[in-house]
Amino acid sequence: MACDRGGVGAARDQDGRTLTFRLTHVLRCWLAGLAAFGCIVCVAACGSPASQPTVVRFWAMGREGEVVAQLVPEFERGHPGIQVVVQDLPWSAAHEKLLTAFAGDATPDACQLGNTWVPELVALHALEPLDARVKGSTAIESGDYFSGIWDTNVIDGRLYGLPWYVDTRLLFYRRDLLAQAGFDAPPRSWDDWQRMLAAIKAHAGPDRYGVLLPLNEFEPLLVLALQQPDPLLVDDGTRGNFESAGFKRTLAFYVGMFRRGYAPPLTNAEISNVWNEFARGYFVFYITGPWNIGEFKRRLPAALQQSWMTAPLPGPDGPGASIAGGSSLVLFARSRVKDAAWQWLEYLSRPEVQARFHELTGDLPPRRTTWNQGALAADPYARAFRDQLERVKPAPNVPEWERIATEMRLVAERAVDGRLTVDQAAAELDARADRILEKRRSLLARRANP
Amino acid sequence: MTRRRAAWVFVGPALAVIGVFFFLPVVAALGLSFTDFDIYALANLANLRFVGLRNYIELLQRAEFWNALGNTLYFVLVGVPLSIGASLGTALLLNARAARFKAFFRTALFAPVVTTLVAAAVVWRYLFNTRYGWLNYALGALGVPAIDWLGDPHFSMPAIIVFAVWKNFGYNMVILLAGLQAIPEELYEAARIDGASAWRRFVHVTLPMLAPMLSMVAILTVAGYFQLFAEPYVMTQGGPLQSTVSVLYLMYEEGFKWWNLGSASAVAFVLFALMFAVTGAQLSLVRRRGPR
């Protein structure tokens, strides 16, 4: 990386100092040349010191950050004059890093963004609206994306991100154990599901369970709540709506799973290895996301590989919705190279590039075209996700949502423990949500009548 | 006059560093605690509201705060005596004349202090595991039914205390061991000639001679234990049922997770005031008893 800074310096500096720059530059290139990684950047920079490559700084997180660098060389071949520098952030530090970068005026040109963070960065005016660019693009067709996922990027009627990959939650289950309990197909409705759970519990005894719903995750409860017609927040996202009939029905269903002994009241901290427990038959159903397809294939013993499957989430009355999660690609408002950065985002959104990205990461693509081709169309474990993606709903897109979801988990945990009834828990949640949303209410009121 | 100026020149750099990196941030944080600085204010300073003492008043009305304070006091009141007791006990054992392999045991008992907290916590999570944990296995052999250490709100804090004491006692042990070694042998000899039993020698010779060390250790340990954070952060994430959320953990979540820097600063100042009062009380206790 030292090398590319040298390259830019030499190109910018047109007076006598260029020579010294070039000399240190050559030295740096020698050093960098020792590392095979730095070499590619070096050749590109050394080869044409006169032309000034446009550098696009791109941040990505976790596994995607490690892998996306492999897509860069081909992009740069097709777009001479643009150089993409990828920085990889760990997920655990990404949120703080983005906010600090914004406060310090050091945001990148583009980045990967978990779609629940989009509203927050839009509230900061950190992101560039993309409507005009998408309209002018031949590579991106909004109708080809799953609509639930696309909507997570639309705030106050404007588009701020392109879905990159999708993440939704559905059922992973043990076919053999379900068959032992007398069922040959996964549940389609809550009633089906409860009947199966009761049969499994009767069959498995007190030390084994039907379903794992870790108490330190809000997602299982959230996906069940999104299946109801009632929105979770009302009045333009300024008031909680947890005392609605729909949410109470979900909460009662969720709490009932623990009360009846279908689900163990545990957090993930107490389950040392969820794959081992699944293999041992500690539970039959598990609500989790697409990354676990790869993990289950890798970590479950070979003898069990034929015995597990994925299924869409059952809903209150027939197949239910799930959450529209995942990451988006966004452009920062403060970037000086928006056009070049946009070309990079467009490239990442092409179906063939998304297919390659799926091969590299196992992440599920957000475009129907990508799903219809290649390995994904044939993967039996992915089929349930393809089906589920037609029924995904975004979580409320206000910056405070993640905090409210956390409160939802904490209050639900108290209800599971028996310290609150369903009605008390719902009232408590509305009170907490309204307190968290107080600032938002006052800001919106001020905007309405200044 | 010139001597005075010279003194200022020498002290100046240190004062400047303290002023810029300590005093200024503290004053700024105090100012911040009277505002509702949050993500909206970060976007546009026009969204910043001066709220006076509201952050403090709301904090004192929040059940989560009292819960966190209760958990912290529980941790301090149980953890500190246990920790100092363990340190004193092991220091006495290491100082005993009959002890063998002193250097080995001193190193072994000090080792937890220098291990990485996160790595140790991962191992302890396995020890505490309800079904496979070594601790429940050992208790099971004694006929005690399995305890859900990290999942039952009644046992989560004891589990954290056990882990924290194990992690920290070695540090005080080394200090107390140095104190024990500094006690002149003649005092014990004289006491023995006077016919004092081992227990009376401990109460009337060891403890008084060790008192300055013990009071320093107590003050440092209390101040350290009030700042409980990393253990629950790694072991339980504050759960189950928020039974291991400490005041500092609450501040971290408020400030760095939800970016409500205004109310997080208020939490910090409340904790500061509390620790200041407790340490002040300890100091005055020591001073009153000291010159005897």
The CATH H-level homologous superfamily of the largest domain in chain A: Periplasmic binding protein-like II
Main sheet properties of chain B: none
Strand-residue proportion of chain A: 5-15%
The CATH architecture term of the largest domain in chain A is: 3-Layer(aba) Sandwich
Instruction: Count the domains of chain B.
Output: 1
The most extensive interface between chains reads: A-B, 27 and 28 residues
CATH topology of chain B: MetI-like fold
- What is the residue-mean pLDDT of chain B, rounded to a whole number? 91
Radius of gyration of chain A: 25 Å
The average pLDDT score of chain A comes to 86
Output the radius of gyration of chain B.
24 Å
The backbone outline of chain A, from C-alpha atoms, is globular
> Between the first and last Cα atoms of chain B, what is the distance in angstroms?
42 Å
Characterization of this structure:
The complex is a heterodimer of chains A (450) and B (292). Chain A is α/β, with parallel strands linked by helices. Chain A has helices spanning 2-12, 18-34, 36-47, 62-68, 72-78, 91-103, 118-123, 131-135, 147-151, 175-180, 190-204, 219-226, 245-259, 274-280, 291-299, 338-349, 351-361, 368-371, 374-378, 380-389, 401-416, 422-436, 438-448, and strands spanning 54-61, 82-89, 110-114, 154-155, 158-159, 162-167, 170-174, 211-212, 233-234, 239-240, 285-288, 308-311, 314-315, 318-319, 322-323, 325-331, 392-393. In chain A, the strands form six sheets. Chain A has a five-stranded mixed sheet. Chain A has a four-stranded mixed sheet with strand order 8-11-7-12. Chain A has a two-stranded antiparallel sheet with strand order 4-5. In chain A, helix 1 (2-12) packs parallel to helix 3 and helix 2 (18-34) packs antiparallel against helix 3 (36-47). Chain B has 13 helices and no strands. In chain B, helix 4 (63-95) packs parallel to helix 8 (153-181), helix 8 (153-181) crosses helix 10 and helix 12 packs antiparallel against helix 13 (261-289). The mean pLDDT of chain B is 91. The longest helix of chain B has 33 residues, at 63-95. Chain B has one domain: MetI-like (MetI-like fold, Orthogonal Bundle). Chain B is globular, with a radius of gyration of 24 Å. Chain A binds chain B through residues 96, 99, 102-103, 120, 123-126, 215-216, 265-267, 269-270, 272, 399, 403, 410, 413-414, 417, 419, 439-440, 443, and chain B through 36, 38-40, 42-44, 47, 125-126, 129-130, 132, 148, 150-151, 153, 235-237, 239-242, 256-259.
